Give the backbone structure.
Amino acid sequence: MTSGLSISKKVMFLLALANIILLGAGWIMALYAYPRLPLRIPVWINFLGQQTLFMNKSILYFIYPFSQSLFCLIFWYLQRIMIKKNRRAGQESLNSRLKREFIFLTLIFFNLLFIHLQRSIILTAHRIEEGVSEYYFFSLFGIILILIPYYRIRSRMIMKKGKIPKNSKKF
């Protein structure tokens, strides 16, 4: 029988791996597409009727993968802080594991968002598309909005079962 802690470690590993793969995919896509881009590329793309802003191809094209990397570092740092706090306290509660899971899932959301923006810029530069796929973009926001209450409900269920001491902070 597998303990809750080992399952949690496996989940954390898989979520971290998914984020690493998505970050790598974003950079591979950017590096592969850059030499193939036309001389004028969009910096900001049409979203809800906004005008697409074009500029000459430059290193600024990499602002999206750099931003994606920055988000990854910030979120990774946040979950590391949670680990350190729990080690000082002596153990990791199920509630803090849920918070770390939520941090990694939110990071997956941001990785997918940056990859979609970058993909849209590449396709707009080649005049294949005219901007962001609004359906995909809003679907991502819908997913993250579903995850927030899901983790709150899950946290409350754990508290009700008595697996987390009542004095522990809620999610």
